[in-house]
UniProtKB/TrEMBL annotation:
Domain of life per record: Eukaryota
Taxonomic source organism: Enhydra lutris kenyoni (northern sea otter)
One Pfam family of this chain: IQ
Alphabetized InterPro entries for the sequence: IQ_motif_EF-hand-BS, IQCF
Coiled coil: none
Keyword Electron transport: no
Entry GO MF terms: calmodulin binding
The protein, known as: IQ domain-containing protein F5 isoform X2
Length: 147
């Protein structure tokens, strides 16, 4: 090893100040790096929160659409069942009306007839029934047709 040099007090003080200054610079650089890393981490966490919120909103929208579709389908099925029941009741009412009218015609009387168009004439045949009495009418009516 070489000859050792004696360090004076001034040099020792200068080395102490230089070491302190280098330490301060390193600590400042590390502090700035830590602050920048903290800023980046906060920004990344905000992005993750936004992404999670967007996914949550999409899932909620999908759920709402599914629920709406289910409710719509249920209302259609209920409407179909009510309409089917209404048609059955309407058919039953028509049958009851038919039998009631038939009964009324048998007990009170009725008018029955038919007609035929022949060339320029209307042939009309009517049968009027009132209980045990019956009356038949047959008439040929000329129609004024211009030729």
């Amino acid at each position: 090893m070489g000859p050792q040099k004696k360090i004076t007090r001034e040099e020792e003080a200068a080395m102490f100040i230089q070491a302190w200054w280098r330490g301060t610079l390193v600590r400042r650089t590390l502090l700035h790096a830590a602050l920048r890393a903290c800023i980046i981490q906060r920004w990344w966490k905000q992005m993750l929160v936004k992404l999670l919120e967007r996914k949550r909103k999409l899932a909620l929208d999908f759920y709402v659409r599914q629920e709406w579709a289910v409710v719509k389908l249920q209302s259609w099925v209920r409407m179909w069942r009510v309409r089917l029941r209404y048609c059955r009741l309407l058919h039953a009412a028509r049958i009851i009306q038919l039998y009631w009218r038939w009964h009324n015609c048998r007990s009170r009387g009725f008018i029955q007839g038919h007609y035929i168009f022949k060339e320029s004439q209307l042939n009309l045949q009517l049968e009027i029934s009132l209980g045990a009495q019956a009356c038949r009418v047959q008439q040929c009516i000329p129609l004024p047709i211009k030729e």
